[in-house]
Design brief:
Layout (H helix, E strand, L loop, with lengths): L3 E4 L4 E4 L7 E6 L10 H19 L4 E6 L6 H7 L4 H6 L7 H22 L17 H13 L3 E4 L2 E4 L1 H4 L21 E2 L11 E7 L10 E2 L2 E2 L2 E3 L1 H13 L3 E7 L3 H16 L4 E7 L2 E3 L2 E2 L10 H6 L4 H9 L7 E3 L1 H24 L11 H15 L4 H14 L7 H18 L7 H4 L6 H15 L3 H13 L2 E6 L2 E6 L6
Parallel strand pairs: 3-4, 3-12, 7-8, 12-13, 14-16
Antiparallel strand pairs: 1-2, 5-6, 6-8, 8-11, 9-10, 14-15, 17-18
The structure holds zinc ion.
Length: 495
């Protein structure tokens, strides 16, 4: 099926056409590993994961997905510096070698990052490469050398800056966001990795060495510039090295459009002479209870914070995927609870289907009814990854179709189609309820189930219903069978 994507470069939805029809290359700006991933980060990586899964499952492409690890930038250096507050709180003893401290800090958070994203259903194995910035210093220096030799960058006080004004004589600066150049002062320099659009100026591509900071020698035209790369330079060099340019899709949150992605385009164009990426895809912001997430407002959550509140990471995935990636996502605890209920409603339907069919009898016949459902869901996913419409289509089907009204053939087909859809949503379990009965169901759940059976036998359906609700709230579900019931764990998700 043809995939359509919103391209930030053209500000329009376009038919996606890969450079090589056999393989789509996606580069995702990965985490800066100086702390645990917060839920805003998680949304950006879930978007990238959704994109690569839709390209595989709906578009039938093979995908080469790269996500870099920013293990050197202003923040990682700040937190690994000798005597830094963040460090002392976490580890205590420190080495005198800034490189060693940087590695300790960033390796720790990199491992934790991959642990976190696996919990929300992003498989590290789906990533072709996860390059660390510090492993590509040579390639970054090579890129900077070309730009300097083309007179599009210059040295000043031991650092090297990209000359925006010079670049603008031959190319556009401001491809992703409109930039007002009225107040632009040529030669004004910015040293930080992050800065506002209003402060557009010559940006740093190589930062001169500072005391107690990790650095690398950089011999350029007979002079040594000991220092370290600017953040924007990292992605330009890594994607060139791993993919070659141009390649298909670069993803990130909208906050990366400027300066990170704009500067990336300018450097790649200046250094390698080509537009680096055909499709720039960005996900919108995440807010918490209607406000910008910030530590000072007390509404800043890491995935771990949510787990401590008893929220399952997989419900965070489902809730975030229930909203379109280009709309602001308003994170609320109530929203997560509602998403969980919706997810379990589908799970119940799947379980009822599994109860009614015998998998020993193979039945792979596609049926018209289910084929239509699948085509409709896939069409929404192909249309700029419209997950809310895809899920609405699924719910309309479930709400209007009693499982008993489906033939055995249709149920077989439904389960198979749902398995395919689950390759994108990673939200449901397909183990037959009986097979799960052996799984350690806690005694209190069994007790509730027994009470419910008794209530049902004595025709106290209100009490039976109430007990069923309690069981569901505790993360389990109960399926009626010929011999009584079977209890399953609703929360477990098939890996
Ligand atoms: Zn990047």
């Amino acid at each position: 099926m043809n995939i359509k994507l919103y391209n930030s470069l053209t500000r329009s939805i376009e038919n996606f056409i890969p450079i090589n029809s056999d393989e789509v290359k996606i580069y995702t700006c990965g985490p800066t590993v100086y702390s645990f991933a917060h839920i805003g980060n998680i949304r950006a990586f879930l978007f990238a994961d959704l994109l690569q899964r839709v390209l595989k499952i709906v578009g039938k492409y093979s995908v080469k997905w790269v996500m870099n690890i920013t293990n050197i930038d202003d923040k990682t250096i700040r937190d690994s510096k000798i005597g830094s507050e963040a460090w002392l709180k976490e580890w205590g003893d420190q080495s005198n070698d800034p490189h060693k401290n940087l590695n300790t800090l960033t390796n720790f958070y990199e491992n934790e990052f991959f642990r976190d994203i696996e919990k929300v259903g992003i498989k590290k194995n789906d990533l072709f490469a996860t390059p660390r910035a510090t492993d590509y210093i040579k390639q970054m220096q090579d890129l900077i050398a070309i730009i300097v030799n083309k007179k599009l960058a210059y040295a000043s006080d031991g650092s090297i800056y990209f000359n925006v004004n010079e670049y603008r004589k031959t190319d556009k600066y401001g491809k992703l966001l409109k930039i007002d150049f009225d107040n632009f002062k040529a030669g004004l320099r910015v040293d930080t990795d992050q800065y506002e659009r209003e402060n557009v100026s010559d940006f740093v591509v190589w930062k001169g060495k500072k005391e107690d900071e990790p650095f690398w020698d950089f011999y350029l035209n007979g002079t040594n510039y000991p220092g370290r790369p600017g953040w924007h330079t990292e992605c330009s060099a890594m994607k060139y090295e791993l993919f070659g340019l141009p390649f298909d899709i670069h993803t990130g949150g909208v906050d990366l459009k400027f300066p990170h992605h704009e500067d990336d385009i300018a450097q790649s164009k200046a250094g390698y002479g080509v537009e680096p990426t055909n499709y720039w895809c960005h996900n919108e912001f995440l807010e918490v209870e209607g406000s910008k997430m910030s530590k000072s407002l007390g509404n800043f959550f890491t995935l771990r914070d949510l787990e401590n509140k008893g929220i399952q990471p997989i419900d965070v995935r489902y809730a975030m995927l229930s909203a379109h990636y280009r709309t602001k996502y308003n994170f609320t605890i109530k929203g997560i609870e509602d998403a969980k209920k919706a997810r379990l409603r589908v799970q119940d339907y799947i379980y009822s289907g599994l109860e009614k069919i015998d998998f020993a009898v193979k039945n792979n016949e596609p049926t018209e009814k289910i084929n239509t459902l699948k085509n409709n869901i896939f069409a929404h996913l192909a249309d700029d990854l419209h997950t809310p419409k895809a899920l609405a289509t699924l719910f309309t089907f479930i709400n209007n179709t009693q499982i008993d009204s489906l033939s055995e053939c249709e149920i077989f087909d439904f389960i198979n189609v749902m398995k395919e859809i689950n390759e994108i949503f990673v939200a449901w379990n397909f183990a037959k309820p009986d097979a799960k009965k052996e799984n350690n169901i806690p005694a209190n759940i069994i007790q509730l189930a027994e009470q419910r059976l008794i209530a049902k036998q004595s025709k106290d359906f209100a009490a039976a219903d109430n007990l069923r609700k309690q069981i569901i709230e505790l993360g389990y579900n109960i399926i009626d069978t010929k011999d009584g019931y079977s209890v399953v764990c609703s929360l477990s998700v098939q890996k």
